[in-house]
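Help needed: design a sequence for this.
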């Protein structure tokens, strides 16, 4: 059985599953990388899709849409969003904007400052983290990220720098996860506040984690046992995930010949080129931040090179 994935929204030059197509798991084992699959697989953890519950646990001020905060700015977003990608998320600077963007089923949250991390925690037996796979998102406008800096766990000063966050995550696991959970839990953190928890890994970064880590994670789901020493570094190099953004959705004319040439070259230092756009799909088939469209992303070991390839690919879409 392949790793569970929504193939309708994952397109790649090589296959629907792209980089993940090389991995197989046992027939009776499911490895979720989509929140809708987590909803089906882990009913006991469904409450954590509610962002207000996560905010309460993290001592973040919040209120339902229709109530007023004590101060601004705040972030208005859906209470639950199983598709992610900052859909219907807005930075609100005053009461007028809050009323203009009112949506039933939304809530406002105090704006949290600090670096933005995505940490995939490999967990054995609920309370026992075996590895932290840490990425930092470098934000740009409109709740988008300019790029992600991945595999920070291999930096020389990582344990010291992230000690307090690891302690915070461990406390959260001990309080909220049952002893029979084996797999990966993703924590999205701003500053020192957990803002989202997903009972799955971040599939966008998997090719940067490397085959050895992914195969060991698959083995954990299959055998309910982590075969490597706790916190052992696999020494996979740091890397970057570069999203390709357009300002809004369009129906594109594609220079397919030029695009195929770029994708075929598989440039040295690039582990994955992933394309979201499919001309057969409609705008409603995609999930994006307001007024934005993610064409895809590039995973690479050189940031400048990644930006250059992203530019070349975007020029194929007019």
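Sure. Designed sequence:
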């Amino acid at each position: 059985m392949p790793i569970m994935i929504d193939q309708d929204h994952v397109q790649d030059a090589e296959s629907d599953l792209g980089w993940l197509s090389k991995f197989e798991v046992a027939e009776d084992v499911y490895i979720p990388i989509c929140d809708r699959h987590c909803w089906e697989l882990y009913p006991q953890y469904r409450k954590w899709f509610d962002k207000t519950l996560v905010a309460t646990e993290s001592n973040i001020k919040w209120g339902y849409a229709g109530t007023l905060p004590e101060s601004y700015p705040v972030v208005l977003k859906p209470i639950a969003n199983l598709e992610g990608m900052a859909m219907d998320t807005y930075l609100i600077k005053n009461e007028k904007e809050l009323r203009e963007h009112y949506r039933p089923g939304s809530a406002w949250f105090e704006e949290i400052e600090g670096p933005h991390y995505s940490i995939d925690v490999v967990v054995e037996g609920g309370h026992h983290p075996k590895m932290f796979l840490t990425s930092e998102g470098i934000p740009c406008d409109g709740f988008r990220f300019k790029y992600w800096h991945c595999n920070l766990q291999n930096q020389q000063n990582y344990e010291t720098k992230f000690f307090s966050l690891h302690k915070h995550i461990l406390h959260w696991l001990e309080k909220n996860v049952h002893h029979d959970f084996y797999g990966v839990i993703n924590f999205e953190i701003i500053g020192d506040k957990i803002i989202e928890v997903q009972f799955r890994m971040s599939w966008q970064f998997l090719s940067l984690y490397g085959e050895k880590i992914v195969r060991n994670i698959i083995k954990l789901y299959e055998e309910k046992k982590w075969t490597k020493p706790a916190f052992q570094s696999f020494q996979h190099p740091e890397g970057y995930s570069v999203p390709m953004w357009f300002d809004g959705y369009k129906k594109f004319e594609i220079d397919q010949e030029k695009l195929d040439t770029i994708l075929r070259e598989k440039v040295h230092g690039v582990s994955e080129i992933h394309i979201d756009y499919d001309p057969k799909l409609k705008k409603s088939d995609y999930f994006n931040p307001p007024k934005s469209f993610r064409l895809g992303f590039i995973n690479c070991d050189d940031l400048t090179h990644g930006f250059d390839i992203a530019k070349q690919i975007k020029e194929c879409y007019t």
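Residues 16 and 240 are 22 Å apart (CA to CA).
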